[in-house]
Automatic annotation (TrEMBL):
InterPro entries reported in the protein's UniProt record: KH_dom-like_a/b (IPR015946), RbfA (IPR000238), RbfA_dom_sf (IPR023799), Ribosome-bd_factorA_CS (IPR020053)
Tagged with keyword Cytoplasm: yes
Protein name as it appears in the record: Ribosome-binding factor A
SUPFAM superfamilies in the cross-refs: Ribosome-binding factor A, RbfA
Localisation per UniProt entry: Cytoplasm
Biological process (GO), any one: maturation of SSU-rRNA
Stored HAMAP family: RbfA
Organism: Kangsaoukella pontilimi
Keyword Translocase in record: no
Length: 132
């Protein structure tokens, strides 16, 4: 979480990182406890990988992935449909000056990890690495 997904400067401030982590924990709790009044959303198990905040802390982007990576579009649609209720539930437990607008995106980190593992298991790459 040291690198920001926003490419607008040297990196996120400590405050952005701290608030992002607070929102991530609270969002995970809200989704796992079923605090949202949507049976479709409550039936899903959603992992919140990271939350990044804009420099003014008014926009929080949550990178999420449904368990197993299945039904990504359905999970995103359910989260976006219940965005205002999720926002209320998340910020209710936090002491922030403004309730940030929460945006949801699919977390592609796990896909990139699988691609990297596949690359390192390639015979030519292993031969080059073993040579060093």
């Amino acid at each position: 979480m040291s690198r920001s997904r926003f490419n607008d400067g040297p990196g996120p401030s400590q405050r952005q990182l701290r608030v992002g982590e607070l929102i991530r924990r609270r969002l995970s709790d809200v989704l796992s406890q079923g605090d949202i009044h949507d049976p479709e959303l409550n039936a899903m198990s959603i992992t919140v990988g990271e939350v990044t905040c804009s420099p003014d802390l008014r926009i929080a982007t949550a990178y999420v992935l449904p368990l197993g990576g299945d039904n990504r579009d359905g999970a995103l649609a359910a989260l976006r449909r219940n965005r205002s209720e999720i926002r209320r539930a998340v910020t209710k437990g936090l002491q922030l000056k403004f309730a940030p607008d929460i945006r949801f995106q699919i977390d592609e980190t796990y896909d990139r990890l699988d691609d990297t593992r596949r690359l390192f298991s390639d015979e030519n790459v292993r031969r080059d690495l073993d040579r060093d």
